[in-house]
């Protein structure tokens, strides 16, 4: 029997061909192009192919814009090619609902009327209005639907979107810049600069892909940071400061940046200074159940940010904030830049977790290390047990 090259299996027991796999890899690459611009919606890429030839491609460019599937369908139609009998590869299950807040028409409708024969999906959409319904609708219309191709890569691509729908809170990424002996500042609070420009450039890129960066009041007092994206091209995230007593100095840079509406201070309850800060253009969010000075309840902080459309947060310090997120188990990924320096004394990146023994240590999974400039970058993920 003569086998077309594009039908060769990716591996002997895989339901997908090597060509299927290449198409999905490409769709994932395309999806990434929307990074930083689609939140709170996901990154999505799509490819349309027939007989081992790609006919067109698309991706979700920005929040509220055309969906990846519709972009790909339109791209093929624009070239005058027929869609009959073609395969559609999409990184996320096509959407199938309408509603007052829905910006785009359901993709399933466009796919069904297009003549597409088969749809290959990396991940099911966890959005409660989709969550398998898109697949069902396509199958009921007689379309072959296969799922799970490169699903691990798809999960990683939209870790913020998946975390939000599964855990009801934004994705939390802790970023620590420390010395070899785990200090994030000298005893007096001086932290400039533990890491070099290469590491700081990577942090700026990370910031541009996150909806929000978050620091505690202590970090603002010690470093007076801007928390903007300056060393690479990209958009500034929302800058969140946890300051339960609303006691930041008026001179803090975060309060006078040109885009200061992107600074949000979270405090405990009402405070006479709230209106002054708002008049200056800075956002203030008083948490009703917070106790001034007692450290803000992080669960409530995350819920409040989630309600404002924040799907991902980069936590940048300081030590008490890192420790509080770790203690509460409210984190997903940690990146530690380890600089070739030893202070021997100073402020710890993490402290006060009170382990009784090694068995109480927080363990990480999906661990990686790489060299960034002069630093070793160590990264790992939260191990969620039983879920
Ligand atoms: C996207 N882009 O390429 C796909 C999405 O308000 P809407 O119409 O933009 O719909 C958003 C939902 O549609 C989103 O939460 C997700 O469940 C689904 N798929 N969304 O923004 C896309 N395919
Ligand atoms: Zn859609």
Note down, in words, how this protein is organized.
This protein has eleven helices and 16 strands. The chain has 387 residues and is an alpha/beta fold. The model has no long low-confidence stretch (mean pLDDT 94). The structure holds ligand AOF and zinc ion (ZN). Zinc ion is lined by residues 67, 69, 94-95, 104, 107.
Entry summary:
The protein is of the alpha/beta class and 387 residues long. It has 2 domains: 4-163, Cytidine Deaminase, domain 2 (3-Layer(aba) Sandwich); 169-382, Dihydrofolate Reductase, subunit A (3-Layer(aba) Sandwich), CATH 3.40.430.10. The protein is built from 11 helices and 16 strands.
Care to count the β-strands?
16
Would you identify the CATH architecture of the largest domain?
3-Layer(aba) Sandwich
**Uncertain spans, ≥5 residues at pLDDT below 50?**
none
- What is the C-alpha radius of gyration, as a whole number of Å? 24 Å
| Multimeric state | single chain
Order of helices and strands: HEEHEHEHEHHEEHEHEEHEHEHEEEE
- Indicate the structural class: alpha/beta
> Helix content range of the residues, please?
25-40%
Mean pLDDT: 94
* Relevant CATH superfamily of the largest domain: Dihydrofolate Reductase, subunit A
**What count of helical segments does DSSP give?**
11
Shape descriptor? globular
> In what order do the strands lie side by side in the largest sheet?
11-10-9-8-12-6-13-16-15
Could you tell me which ligands this complex binds, including any ions or cofactors? ligand AOF, zinc ion
Euclidean distance between termini CA atoms: 46 Å
Please indicate the count of domains. 2
In what range is the share of β-strand residues? 15-25%
Biggest sheet overview:
9 strands, mixed
Name of the level-1 CATH class of the largest domain? Alpha Beta
């Amino acid at each position: 029997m003569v086998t077309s090259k594009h039908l060769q299996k990716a591996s002997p027991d895989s339901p997908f061909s090597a060509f299927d796999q290449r198409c999905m890899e490409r769709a994932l690459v395309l999806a990434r192009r929307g990074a930083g611009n689609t939140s709170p919606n996901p990154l999505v890429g799509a490819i349309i192919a027939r007989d081992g030839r790609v006919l067109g491609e698309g991706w979700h460019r920005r929040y509220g814009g055309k969906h990846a599937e519709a972009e790909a369908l339109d791209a093929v139609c624009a070239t005058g090619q027929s869609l009959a009998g073609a395969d559609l590869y999409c990184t996320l299950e096509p959407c199938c609902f309408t509603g007052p807040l829905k910006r785009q028409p359901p993709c399933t409708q466009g796919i069904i009327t297009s003549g597409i024969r088969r749809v290959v999906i990396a991940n099911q959409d966890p959005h409660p209005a989709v969550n398998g319904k898109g697949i069902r609708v396509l199958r009921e219309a007689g379309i072959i639907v296969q799922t799970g191709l490169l699903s691990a890569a798809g999960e990683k691509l939209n870790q913020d979107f998946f975390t939000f729908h599964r855990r009801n809170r934004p994705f939390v990424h802790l970023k620590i810049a420390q010395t070899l002996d785990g200090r994030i500042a000298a005893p007096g609070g001086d932290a400039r600069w533990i890491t070099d420009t290469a590491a700081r450039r990577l942090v700026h890129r990370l910031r541009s892909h996150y909806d929000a960066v978050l620091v505690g009041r202590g970090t603002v007092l010690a470093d007076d940071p801007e928390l903007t994206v300056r060393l690479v091209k990209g958009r500034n995230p929302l800058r969140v400061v946890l300051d339960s007593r609303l006691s930041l100095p008026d001179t803090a840079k975060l309060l006078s940046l040109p885009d200061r509406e992107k600074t949000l201070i979270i405090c405990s309850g009402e405070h006479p200074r709230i209106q002054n800060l708002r008049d200056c253009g800075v956002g203030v969010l008083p948490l009703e159940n917070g106790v001034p000075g007692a450290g803000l309840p992080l669960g409530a902080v995350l819920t409040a940010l989630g309600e404002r459309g924040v799907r991902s947060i980069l936590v940048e310090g300081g030590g008490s904030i890192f420790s509080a997120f770790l203690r509460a188990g409210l984190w997903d990924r940690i990146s530690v830049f380890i600089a070739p320096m030893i202070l021997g004394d100073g402020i710890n990146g993490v402290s006060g977790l009170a382990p009784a023994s090694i068995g109480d240590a927080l363990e990480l999974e999906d661990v990686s290390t790489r060299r960034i400039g002069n630093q070793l970058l160590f990264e790992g993920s939260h191990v969620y047990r039983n879920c």
